[in-house]
What we know:
By secondary structure, this protein is mainly β. The chain has helices spanning 158-166, 193-202, 207-212, and strands at 14-18, 36-40, 56-63, 66-73, 78-88, 95-102, 108-115, 124-129, 136-141, 144-146, 149-155, 169-175, 183-188.
Amino acid sequence: MRLNLIASLVAALAVAVPAANAESQTGKPASGPQPAAPVRMATLVAAGEAAAPGDIVHVKRPFGPWSLVCDTRLSTNKRVCFLEQIIISNDGKAAVNWRLMTTDDDRTMLVALVPNTVDTDHGLKLETRALDASDHSEKTIREFNCKQSCIAVVPFNGVLQYGLLKATAIKFSFQLKGASPSSYVLDGSMRGFQDAVNAAAADPFGKLAQRNTKPEPKKADAQPRKPKAAPEKVAAQVPKPRPAKAPKKQQSVVPSQPGLY
């Protein structure tokens, strides 16, 4: 499986690794220290070129212990990315920064950065172990170029690639000169690695992820029913008092006088 990753640094990162099978101009194998073969990582800005202010957009997305780091140059509409994991010792005195990057000629490389006090003779030992305890691999990296820090670049292929892609446990061990303690063993992890690789290929800036996780619009709340208005109280019809009828005048009966008609 070949990782389909694009490596990047805003400025070109040139590092040196010993050339394999170097020969002298006479065609005979060279003796002594071999000349360094330059390895130039893919970049958005050519050597001697300066990007305009604001021309490069930098995005870093975490995927568990891994980070997907991408730069885009707006003027050329080009993008380069790399994967990175930083492991720091419990005492804070040592760290390993390891990256998966590609070169400008499209080779995938493992780039390891450690303190400049690393014992390069002892090297950086990388151990991987899969679920099957018998399926493990080891590689010791000694091809360091040290200045402010020590950097090593090795091809990410063969046994190294196979071991890392299947690994459930990863350990980096190295020694520092003049330090106490001098030996360190740091645990790496492949958790989140495949998600980061997929994002680098299809969605480096998280636009699709953002779209997929966009909250659904809230449904309009049903209008609460207005309580029925209480029926207006009808004022009790109090019958108006009727005026009392005047009592009928009783006609006085005048007894008739006898003899009168």
